[in-house]
Protein backbone atom coordinates (compact mmCIF):
# COMPACT_ATOMS: atom_id res chain seq x y z
CA UNK A 1 0.00 0.00 0.00
CA UNK A 2 2.77 2.47 0.87
CA UNK A 3 4.19 2.40 -2.66
CA UNK A 4 0.75 3.15 -4.13
CA UNK A 5 0.33 6.11 -1.78
CA UNK A 6 3.88 7.36 -2.54
CA UNK A 7 3.33 7.25 -6.29
CA UNK A 8 -0.12 8.81 -6.03
CA UNK A 9 1.15 11.70 -3.91
CA UNK A 10 4.11 12.61 -6.12
CA UNK A 11 4.63 16.40 -6.25
CA UNK A 12 3.24 19.18 -4.09
CA UNK A 13 -0.41 19.16 -3.07
CA UNK A 14 -2.37 22.36 -2.67
CA UNK A 15 -5.87 23.04 -1.52
CA UNK A 16 -7.41 26.42 -2.24
CA UNK A 17 -4.01 28.09 -2.47
CA UNK A 18 -2.47 26.62 0.69
CA UNK A 19 0.18 23.91 0.57
CA UNK A 20 -0.56 20.52 2.20
CA UNK A 21 2.29 18.64 3.84
CA UNK A 22 2.66 15.46 1.79
CA UNK A 23 4.34 13.54 4.64
CA UNK A 24 1.49 14.29 7.10
CA UNK A 25 -1.17 13.37 4.55
CA UNK A 26 0.68 10.14 3.73
CA UNK A 27 0.89 9.27 7.44
CA UNK A 28 -2.85 9.90 7.89
CA UNK A 29 -3.74 7.76 4.87
CA UNK A 30 -1.39 4.97 6.00
CA UNK A 31 -3.02 4.98 9.44
CA UNK A 32 -6.53 4.85 7.92
CA UNK A 33 -5.55 1.96 5.65
CA UNK A 34 -4.00 0.10 8.61
CA UNK A 35 -7.28 0.47 10.53
CA UNK A 36 -9.26 -0.94 7.60
CA UNK A 37 -6.78 -3.78 7.03
CA UNK A 38 -6.88 -4.57 10.76
CA UNK A 39 -10.65 -5.10 10.56
CA UNK A 40 -10.35 -7.19 7.42
CA UNK A 41 -7.57 -9.29 8.93
CA UNK A 42 -9.69 -10.12 11.96
CA UNK A 43 -8.77 -7.66 14.68
CA UNK A 44 -11.31 -9.22 17.02
CA UNK A 45 -11.22 -6.69 19.82
CA UNK A 46 -12.40 -7.44 23.35
CA UNK A 47 -15.27 -6.57 25.64
CA UNK A 48 -13.12 -3.84 27.22
CA UNK A 49 -11.63 -2.59 23.91
CA UNK A 50 -13.97 -3.40 21.01
CA UNK A 51 -12.38 -3.23 17.56
CA UNK A 52 -15.21 -1.05 16.21
CA UNK A 53 -15.42 2.03 18.43
CA UNK A 54 -15.31 5.81 18.37
CA UNK A 55 -12.18 7.75 19.23
CA UNK A 56 -13.86 9.48 22.19
CA UNK A 57 -15.35 6.27 23.64
CA UNK A 58 -12.96 3.35 23.17
CA UNK A 59 -14.77 0.92 25.52
CA UNK A 60 -18.09 1.06 23.62
CA UNK A 61 -18.60 -0.61 20.24
CA UNK A 62 -18.59 -3.93 18.43
CA UNK A 63 -16.22 -6.90 18.57
CA UNK A 64 -15.97 -10.60 17.71
CA UNK A 65 -15.98 -12.79 20.88
CA UNK A 66 -15.84 -16.11 18.97
CA UNK A 67 -16.48 -17.60 15.55
CA UNK A 68 -19.88 -16.60 14.13
CA UNK A 69 -20.58 -14.14 16.95
CA UNK A 70 -20.76 -10.37 17.13
CA UNK A 71 -20.77 -8.65 20.51
CA UNK A 72 -21.78 -5.14 21.44
CA UNK A 73 -19.98 -3.69 24.41
CA UNK A 74 -21.07 -0.62 26.40
CA UNK A 75 -18.75 0.83 29.03
CA UNK A 76 -16.49 -2.26 28.70
CA UNK A 77 -19.35 -4.71 29.44
CA UNK A 78 -21.05 -7.09 27.02
CA UNK A 79 -24.45 -5.57 26.31
CA UNK A 80 -25.73 -7.73 23.43
CA UNK A 81 -24.53 -10.81 21.61
CA UNK A 82 -25.56 -11.95 18.14
CA UNK A 83 -24.80 -15.55 17.25
CA UNK A 84 -25.07 -17.28 13.89
CA UNK A 85 -25.63 -20.80 12.69
CA UNK A 86 -28.87 -20.15 10.83
CA UNK A 87 -30.63 -18.43 13.73
CA UNK A 88 -29.78 -15.10 15.30
CA UNK A 89 -29.94 -14.66 19.03
CA UNK A 90 -29.89 -11.55 21.13
CA UNK A 91 -28.69 -12.01 24.68
CA UNK A 92 -28.57 -9.25 27.25
CA UNK A 93 -25.88 -9.11 29.90
CA UNK A 94 -24.66 -6.63 32.45
CA UNK A 95 -26.92 -6.97 35.48
CA UNK A 96 -29.60 -4.39 34.65
CA UNK A 97 -33.08 -5.49 33.56
CA UNK A 98 -33.17 -5.17 29.76
CA UNK A 99 -35.82 -2.98 28.20
CA UNK A 100 -36.88 -3.89 24.68
CA UNK A 101 -39.11 -1.48 22.84
CA UNK A 102 -40.34 -0.80 19.35
CA UNK A 103 -40.02 2.78 18.18
CA UNK A 104 -41.89 4.53 15.42
CA UNK A 105 -45.05 6.42 14.62
CA UNK A 106 -47.21 3.31 14.10
CA UNK A 107 -49.03 2.45 17.36
CA UNK A 108 -49.88 -1.08 16.15
CA UNK A 109 -46.38 -2.55 15.96
CA UNK A 110 -46.13 -6.13 17.23
CA UNK A 111 -43.14 -7.37 19.24
CA UNK A 112 -42.50 -11.14 19.43
CA UNK A 113 -40.30 -12.89 21.99
CA UNK A 114 -39.49 -16.41 20.81
CA UNK A 115 -37.73 -19.04 22.82
CA UNK A 116 -35.49 -21.46 20.96
CA UNK A 117 -38.37 -23.31 19.38
CA UNK A 118 -41.79 -21.97 18.53
CA UNK A 119 -43.03 -20.81 21.95
CA UNK A 120 -43.56 -17.09 22.11
CA UNK A 121 -44.92 -14.09 23.90
CA UNK A 122 -46.41 -11.56 21.50
CA UNK A 123 -47.05 -7.98 22.56
CA UNK A 124 -49.12 -5.53 20.55
CA UNK A 125 -51.16 -2.42 21.26
CA UNK A 126 -54.19 -4.24 22.72
CA UNK A 127 -53.13 -7.70 23.93
CA UNK A 128 -50.30 -10.02 24.93
CA UNK A 129 -50.39 -13.59 23.65
CA UNK A 130 -48.62 -16.50 25.35
CA UNK A 131 -47.98 -19.56 23.15
CA UNK A 132 -46.76 -23.08 23.85
CA UNK A 133 -43.58 -24.53 22.40
CA UNK A 134 -45.73 -26.19 19.73
CA UNK A 135 -47.17 -22.79 18.77
CA UNK A 136 -50.68 -23.20 20.26
CA UNK A 137 -52.15 -20.18 22.04
CA UNK A 138 -52.27 -20.71 25.82
CA UNK A 139 -53.56 -17.33 26.95
CA UNK A 140 -54.36 -13.81 25.83
CA UNK A 141 -53.99 -10.91 28.24
CA UNK A 142 -55.66 -7.58 27.48
CA UNK A 143 -58.69 -6.17 25.71
CA UNK A 144 -61.00 -8.71 24.02
CA UNK A 145 -64.73 -9.49 23.63
CA UNK A 146 -65.64 -5.95 24.68
CA UNK A 147 -63.73 -6.20 28.00
CA UNK A 148 -60.41 -4.80 29.13
CA UNK A 149 -57.59 -6.16 31.30
CA UNK A 150 -58.76 -9.75 30.78
CA UNK A 151 -56.75 -12.95 31.18
CA UNK A 152 -58.18 -15.49 28.73
CA UNK A 153 -56.88 -19.04 29.34
CA UNK A 154 -57.48 -21.44 26.46
CA UNK A 155 -58.59 -25.07 26.85
CA UNK A 156 -55.72 -27.42 27.60
CA UNK A 157 -55.13 -31.15 27.72
CA UNK A 158 -55.49 -32.14 31.37
CA UNK A 159 -52.21 -33.11 33.05
CA UNK A 160 -51.76 -36.85 33.63
CA UNK A 161 -49.14 -36.69 36.37
CA UNK A 162 -48.78 -34.76 39.59
CA UNK A 163 -46.56 -31.69 39.76
CA UNK A 164 -43.85 -31.66 42.42
CA UNK A 165 -43.79 -28.71 44.79
CA UNK A 166 -46.69 -26.79 43.27
CA UNK A 167 -49.75 -27.21 41.12
CA UNK A 168 -51.20 -26.89 37.63
CA UNK A 169 -53.83 -24.27 36.82
CA UNK A 170 -55.60 -25.04 33.54
CA UNK A 171 -58.88 -24.85 31.65
CA UNK A 172 -60.58 -28.04 30.48
CA UNK A 173 -63.74 -27.80 28.37
CA UNK A 174 -64.23 -24.23 29.60
CA UNK A 175 -63.94 -25.10 33.34
CA UNK A 176 -61.09 -23.63 35.41
CA UNK A 177 -59.31 -26.42 37.29
CA UNK A 178 -56.38 -26.91 39.65
CA UNK A 179 -54.34 -30.11 40.11
CA UNK A 180 -52.20 -30.15 43.24
CA UNK A 181 -49.04 -32.10 44.01
CA UNK A 182 -51.02 -34.95 45.62
CA UNK A 183 -53.12 -35.40 42.48
CA UNK A 184 -56.33 -33.79 43.74
CA UNK A 185 -58.16 -31.99 40.94
CA UNK A 186 -60.37 -29.11 42.04
CA UNK A 187 -62.85 -27.39 39.75
CA UNK A 188 -62.59 -23.70 40.63
CA UNK A 189 -65.24 -22.49 38.18
CA UNK A 190 -67.58 -24.46 35.94
CA UNK A 191 -67.78 -23.74 32.23
Give a structural overview.
By secondary structure, the chain is mainly β. Among the domains are: 2-40, no CATH class; 44-99, no CATH class. The chain is built from two helices and 15 strands. The strands form four sheets. Strands 3-4-5-6-7 form a five-stranded antiparallel β-sheet, with no helix packed on it. The chain has a five-stranded antiparallel β-sheet with strand order 8-9-10-11-12, with no helix packed on it. The chain is elongated, with a radius of gyration of 29 Å. 3% of the residues are buried.
Quick tags:
2 helices; elongated; single chain; mainly beta; five-stranded antiparallel beta sheet; 191 residues
Summarize the structure.
The protein is mainly β and 191 residues long. Among the domains are: 2-40, no CATH class; 44-99, no CATH class. The protein contains two helices and 15 strands.
Q: List the total number of helices.
A: 2
In the sheet with the most strands, the strands line up as 3-4-5-6-7
- The chain-level mean pLDDT equals 75
Strand segment count = 15
Shape: elongated
Beta-strand content estimate: 35-45%
Structural class: mainly beta
Name the helix and strand elements from N-terminus to C-terminus, one letter apiece.
Answer: HEEHEEEEEEEEEEEEE
Question: Helical amount among residues, as a percent range?
Answer: 10-25%
List the quaternary state of the chains.
single chain
- The termini sit apart by 79 Å
How does the major sheet shape up? 5 strands, antiparallel
- Gyration radius, in Å: 29 Å
Low-confidence stretches: 1-7
